[in-house]
Write a structure and sequence with these properties.
The protein is an all-alpha fold. Helix content is about 65%, strand content about 0%.
Amino acid sequence: MSLHITDDPAADELLTRDPLALLIGMLLDQQVPMETAFAGPLKISERLGTLDAEAIAGTDPEQFAALFAQTPAVHRFPGSMAARVQALCGAVVNEWGGDAAAIWTRDDPDGRTVLKRLKALPGFGDQKAKIFLALLGKQYGYTGDGWREASAPYGEEGSHRSVADIVSPDSLQKVRAFKKAAKAAARESAGTSA
């Protein structure tokens, strides 16, 4: 298994081998391009010297926000997103013993259970949790019962709705086209209901 999300081999390699990196990348995936969000964990790791949940959670918040703001910034909203990453890492430490993968591996959980666990994390609403569950099932080897149903519509086979479907530059373009069409439809719908 090898992820190809960022178009940066080092960032993709980190996402592939480190479940916390993947979880942080998903958290950062808002209001920035997907590649930028998922390249964030590598920047954090290089600047902090580690990508350990306990170390991240325990770093001085001002120092961590400054690390986020260094050029190139980890996220376009470095202060608020740095705080969210620290809150997420705190939850991983306190609830999962510092092991992000335990969220989807501990006690052999089914898809609904993993979705519930993800939604309990800081920064993970329903949609983000479903997309991440689809990513786990489609590309990260998670095989829990009912993961496709729990992650619907993102778990749908052959779809190009989200980061869960990006396996190549071609699939990235298909996901971008889907998102663009969905935004246009939402704008059109909002315009007709006004």
